[in-house]
Design goal:
The protein is an alpha/beta fold. The protein is built from 9 helices and 8 strands.
Length: 220
């Protein structure tokens, strides 16, 4: 039985945005006279929205005098200037989305990234046409891991939690799905912080080639 709705995370799930996020982080750090971070360090900081990414970067470099609000604005200036300069969709993402859409399964996207930048990225990478609903980190008064953001999408698209699926890459996504009563599929190529084995999910996939078959064979 096909799901009534599949909701996707963006960063680390559908797209590898870490190089652009790292470039923006380091641009912001340079503005404050702080040393840059390596890409693997930034990858481990992604997942809870801009404010947390910036706070973690400042803490990692001991930039105690930096104003967090000003740092967030500087980060967004750097990032929004070209958010897909180094960002690519993960291999097979486009094909998996096309296969799921061809199977008449409604698709949505839920990210903690600001909605305006999300829209630009989806358009630039040719992914915008797949989703019936796109929710960014500033679209609602709450965001992941608050389950209300996922439940709002389900309600808008008339899908019961038990009939939905969240596809993500991190502990934040897993916690959101669990709190909303939604099944969770983990993409292991993403930005999780701990061991894959410690993240509760119905399946852990190394790539998108496996996703359509998994969806077709899901139990009711």
């Amino acid at each position: 039985m096909s799901p009534a709705l599949i909701v996707f995370d963006l960063d680390g799930t559908l797209i590898d945005s870490a190089p652009d996020l790292a470039a923006a982080v380091n641009g912001m750090l340079a503005d404050f006279g702080c040393a840059p971070l390596a890409l693997p360090e930034v990858r481990r900081m992604i997942g809870d929205g801009v404010a947390m990414l910036v706070a973690r970067a400042l803490a990692a470099r001991g930039c105690a005098d930096a104003d967090p609000a000003a740092a967030g604005r500087l980060f967004m200036q750097h990032y929004a200037s070209d958010p897909t300069a180094r960002t690519t969709a993960f291999p097979g993402a486009d094909q998996a989305l096309a296969a799921l859409r061809a199977a008449a399964i409604p698709l949505a996207l839920c990210t903690n990234k600001p909605a305006r930048v999300t829209s630009r990225i989806l358009h630039s990478l040719g992914l915008e046409g797949y989703f019936a609903r796109v929710i960014g980190g500033d679209s609602l008064p709450f965001r992941k891991p608050d389950p209300r953001v996922l439940l709002a999408i389900l309600e808008a698209l008339d899908a019961p939690p038990a009939g939905a699926l969240l596809v993500g890459d991190s502990e934040v996504d897993a916690a959101t799905a669990s709190a909303a009563g939604v099944r969770f599929v983990l993409m292991t190529h993403g930005y999780h912080r701990g061991a894959v084995e410690a993240i509760p999910c119905i399946a852990a996939l190394a790539g998108f080639a496996e996703l359509p078959a998994l969806v077709r064979n899901l139990p009711a």
